[in-house]
Amino acid sequence: MNSEKISSIVLAVLVAIAAVVCVLFCVGGSEEAIYSGEAFDAPNYTGAVLNVVYAFFFLAIAATVISAILSFFIKLKNDKRSAYTSIAMIVALSLLCGITYATGDGTPLNMPNYDGNENVRGSLKLADMCLNSIKTLFVVAVIAALFNVTLAKTINKVK
Predict the structure, then answer these.
(1) What are the tens digits of pLDDT across the range 122-140?
(2) 2, 47, 68, 90: which has the fewest Cβ within 10 Å?
(3) Domain boundaries defined on the chain
């Protein structure tokens, strides 16, 4: 079985799991919950949706790390410069995450009637890390796109 067929099967399984959980969430009913004296409907399968999202997130991270390591060793045999470039990108992304985590604000939020345990320094800094990394990568992508367009116009003028 080749890798393309395996990845197609894995994709189909993950889509099926996501579809089942989505259907459960949408048609699985809800319970009336009361917070701060106000009633609202809380879907029964919210926890299942969150667990699937967490599982998919960690699977994506694991797949990325494993494929980066395998790619590094495969490229190392054939093209050392390309191998070191791919490792440099992983180091740069790790550095970006470290910097944005360090600069994140961990001050607990004022959330009346919240009993959860996510309003702590580590979770808040992690959320800030994700948001700031996304913003930074978006700006870098826009700059790279503009640079690419400018470079393409310059090359076309030279021809």
Answers:
(1) 999 999 999 999 999 999 9
(2) 2
(3) 79-159
